[in-house]
Amino acid sequence: MQKTLIAAAGMAIAVTVFSVAAKADHLNIDVKAASVKDGAIMFPSVRIDKDGYVVIHAVADGKPVLPESIGHTAVKTGTTSNVTVKVPGANAGTDYVAMIHYETNGNATYDFGKASTTVDTPGMKPDNTPYALSFKAN
After folding, report:
1. Could you tell me the residue ranges of all domains in the chain?
2. pLDDT at residue 19 above 80?
3. pTM, rounded to two decimals
């Protein structure tokens, strides 16, 4: 069952992630002005409708590597400026995928991943697909 959920989430993200903008008024990551400095990616602005995380995924063969992430940082409800996500080996010009995940199990720790895909799940757009944006950091 877990592998089915991972595969379904991966397909949904792969299909939707490469659109120019993921439309969701309750969520936003400003990826257009994302920048890399000192092993971190900085986003000028992030909007989230409940506490959660900005999560970074690598891209391989044109697709996001899921469910593994290469970096994440907590964000509180509302709009936050200058959100920095530590990503070891981050390089300008490299393809990444940024996603919103919610804190769902109340422990203030990002727990979504290969061993657990039922907690800290992705934020969803109105069409019920994960909020995910592809980008190249400057």
Report:
1. 2-136
2. no
3. 0.84
